[in-house]
Structure formats: structure tokens, C-alpha cells
Amino acid sequence: MNLNKYLDVNPEVAEAIANGKPVVALESTIISHGMPYPQNVETALNVERIIRENGAVPATIAIIGGRLKAGLTPGEIEYFGKKGQAITKASRRDLAVLCARGQDGATTVTTTMIIAHMAGIKVFATGGIGGVHRGAETTMDISADLEELAHTPVMVVCAGAKSILDLGLTLEYLETHGVPVIGYGTEELPAFYTRTSGFKVDYRMDTPQELAGAFKAQNDMGLGGGMLVTNPIPEAFSMDPAVINGAIDQAIAECNAKGIHGKATTPFLLARVAEITGGNSLASNIQLVYNNARLAAQTACAYCAM
Questions:
Q1: What is the mean pLDDT of residues 185-212?
Q2: DSSP, res 127
Q3: What is the pTM of this model?
Q4: Catalytic residue selected from 15, 27, 188, 258
């Protein structure tokens, strides 16, 4: 079975991988579904710039015309930003159909991990991962991101799980599936918009070299699966927990009242929370993505130096 016949690797990214240079994967759902135009394109290009400034090659990942893309051009990023939510949000279950039909797809954490691994990219920076949704004991709404972390050997650098989720159950699920959850400079799981959640991570690490060493050992042992690095939002952009949690509770109540479910849930909640907080949550979202890109690039550099 050769999935790579569906894959196009950007020449700069391919050259870096072939020569053992650091590469950082980036998702495209954050462009199409995470932010409005033109902020989405501006943010995506800034993230790529930050990765370059920190010594690595960026590889924004997407599906365009049925082709899996590892590394987008600025024009392709602009295209994704303008089309926005008209592009299918593509999880694992969608890949085959989108490729067969020659359609576009915005990659989630799950599909970005899959395509990054196919291309040979080991480190991926995102905003926050999906997880176990509140009320999942009755809805069974659990993000495919968690299952992918259990199986696909890519390090995911994020600002924790989105605080619209049940963070305790999310950690329990990751523990059951053997995924190490690392706190960067913290022993507590960050909650996306805020630096603390009240839940403990598995390990604290304080340098990119330490992160890279742990992931290299995991790969050398052939243990399989990914590693989740949770990097708290910078203090200056962290939101008041009472404000953000109040906005989230209101958004979840509205989501339930409207009967929204499945993959439409997270984009609705994030957009509604941004509205309720007067745009403050969007500003925080952008800053935490920049922060994660910086750490991911430094970690990819440390990994390649080993």
C-alpha cells in the first residue's frame, strides 16, 4: 500500500527532509475554520515566518484538488483563507473520499499528523487539540485527534486542549492510549486561553532539547504513537478564567439549543466565544499559535541535531 502516490511535498520541504533539516508541520483548519479572513491568512503567513526565524522550514498541510499537500505556497494559503468554511473540514474518515473526488480539504490535527508522517515530518505546531467533549458519556463525542495521537508518531505542540472540552476526561483518554502529555515549563495542563486548568500533566520539561530527547527515545524504541507537548499561552495574553469560562458555558448552551453536533461543534463554539468576549479570545488564539510555532521550530532543530 502506497499512500504517498496521493502526496505532493513542496520542493523546499522535500529538500529539507532529505537533508535532515528541521521541518514543522502546520494545519489548515485554523486558516479555513478557525479565524475570519483576512486575519486567517495574515496569521498563517506570520506563523511560517516565525518558524523560519527559529531555524526550521514550515510545511502548512492541506488537501487541494484531491492531492495531499505538505507545504503550501502563499497563494494556496490565500486561497484557503478566502474560501474559508466552504472548504470541507477533513478528518481521517474524509481523506479517501476527498482524494477520490478531487476535492479540497482543510486538515485537522488528525489529518495533519497523518500527512506529516507520510512526508517524514516529525514535529507539528497547532493551537489546541480536540478532545473529549463535555457530556461525552451520553453523546460519545470524542475527537479523532486523541486516537491519532495514540497511533501516529508525530510530536504535537499545542496550548493544551480547548477549554470547551472536558479536560479531565481528555487526559484520562490519552493516558489509556499511552500518549505522554508534557507540560512545557509547567506541571499543570494549560487550557488554551488560560495558563492553568487544575489538572496535572505527566511530565514537566523546560527546554526544547529535553522535549526532543524524549521524543527521539520514544521513536528509537519503536513505541509508536505521538507525544503531546502543552505550551501555556504567554502570560500577557492569558484570559481571565472566569470571563472565558462564562463565555464557553454560554456558547455551549447555545450550541446544544441549536442542535449543532459533530465536526460543526468546535468552529461554532470558537466563533461564538470570540463574539461573546468582544474578539479578545481571537487575539489570544493568534498569540498562542505564534508561541507554539516558536517552540516547535526550536524542538525540531534540537531533534535534528541529535
A1: 95
A2: S
A3: 0.92
A4: 27
